[in-house]
Design goal:
The structure holds two protein chains of two kinds.
Chain A lengths: L6 H14 L3 E5 L2 E3 L4 H8 L3 H14 L5 H13 L5
Antiparallel strand pairs in A: 1-2
Helix pairs in contact in A: 1-3, 2-3
Chain B lengths: L16 E7 L4 H5 L11 H20 L3 E3 L14 H7 L4 E2 L6 E3 L3 E2 L1 E7 L17 H10 L3 H5 L4 E6 L2 E8 H8 L4 H13 L3 H9 L1 H12 L9 H4 L14
Antiparallel strand pairs in B: 1-6, 2-6, 3-4, 4-5, 7-8
Helix pairs in contact in B: 7-8, 7-9
The chains are: A mainly alpha, B alpha+beta.
Chain lengths: 85, 250
């Protein structure tokens, strides 16, 4: 079953979708602000919820740098190595 | 509180109550280990989910009301179907912290949470009135250094500001955190799989496919081990729950 998102549609909306979703979360006081559900984003952009979901899932993964993984390993090794002292 | 499509009633029609459990924090030995993999071996979330399944069954068998586990994990991408964190917050198990809005319990600090939704009417405990974060020592640290233990530990994932002894704002980079908290898990697997498929150089392709990192991700997925909770560095120096963790050598 084809996913209803063309490359053009993805490129047009990926930054907007990512900015409105939960990739970057902000809390003011004790309240989370500024994030929206796929349904809410779909309403704002004139897309279907399914389209927003697929755009978001791809955009989330594409914004992860593969180099962050080895960097994470080194970060945690360095932090845990303090326990050797 | 929760948006449409992400409410307990979206899971169980006629839902009246949610019972939330908190527990299974990292063991002291895991905090003390100098091998960062150890703290990811907790299976804390799995254990908590088992407890909530049993609680849901207890409510059905003993009290005759429909009950079901709030599905753990994600419904799509990095978004849960229902936020257990929000449920725990509403149940008064903790308040949101500078550390990526992780809930901190006043007595235990970091905990894993799980929940069951039921048609049984129960009186709600309600959220806590006083925020656990920031602790007084964090406020003092902020006044001197303009940082807190969690912000100092992980500036890649976290930023924020205190004002008048309270959290003014906090920003959390969810996807960066995923690469630390789930370093060798599902995201790493599918990202590396795509890199393998796209790699034109045969030797580099072999290194990616047969190297230690991809193998580690495959092993974790195959054995359901070390899938979540692989990084607790924002929590390591957090004063909340400090009595339950060993002192860190300085």
């Amino acid at each position: 079953m084809p996913i209803p998102v063309t490359r053009e549609l993805y490129l047009k909306h990926k930054d907007q979708v990512l900015a409105m979703a939960t990739a970057r979360q902000r809390m003011e006081g004790q309240k989370m602000v500024g994030t929206s559900t796929d349904r809410e984003i779909a309403g704002r952009l004139g897309l279907s919820e399914d389209q927003v979901r697929e755009i978001r899932c791809l955009a989330e993964m594409e914004s992860i740098d593969l180099n962050w993984y080895p960097e994470a390993e080194e970060f945690k090794k360095a932090r845990a190595s303090r326990n050797k002292r | 509180m929760a948006p449409e499509g992400h409410r307990p009633t979206d899971i169980l029609p006629g839902a009246r109550s949610v019972v939330v459990l908190g527990g299974r924090p990292p063991l002291r030995g895991a905090w003390r280990s100098h091998n960062p993999r150890v703290i990811g071996l907790l299976e804390g979330t799995t254990g908590m989910q088992g407890l909530s399944v049993r609680m849901a069954a207890f409510i059905e068998v003993k009290h005759g009301f429909d009950s079901v586990l709030i599905p753990p994990g994600y419904s799509s991408g990095h978004i849960p179907l229902v936020s257990t964190k929000l449920l725990a917050e509403m149940a008064g198990l903790g308040t949101r912290s500078m550390a990526g809005a992780i809930l901190l319990n006043p007595s235990h600090g970091f905990l894993y949470y799980s929940a069951a939704v039921t048609t049984m009417p129960l009186q709600a405990d309600g959220p806590l009135t006083d925020p656990v974060c920031p602790a007084p020592s964090c406020v003092r640290m902020w006044e001197k250094k303009k940082t807190t233990p969690c912000l100092q530990a992980c500036p890649a994932c976290l930023s924020g500001e205190l004002e008048d002894g309270r959290v003014k704002w906090m920003e959390y980079h969810q996807l960066r955190c995923h690469t630390r908290a789930q370093t060798s898990s599902i995201d790493a697997f599918i990202m590396t799989l795509l890199a393998i498929v796209e790699e034109p150089d045969p030797h580099q392709r072999k290194l990616l496919a047969l190297g230690s990192r991809f193998r580690h991700s495959v092993e974790n997925i195959a054995f359901s081990s070390e899938l979540v909770g692989q990084c607790f560095e924002c929590m390591r120096d957090c004063p909340a729950g400090r009595p339950h963790r060993p002192a860190r050598p300085r």
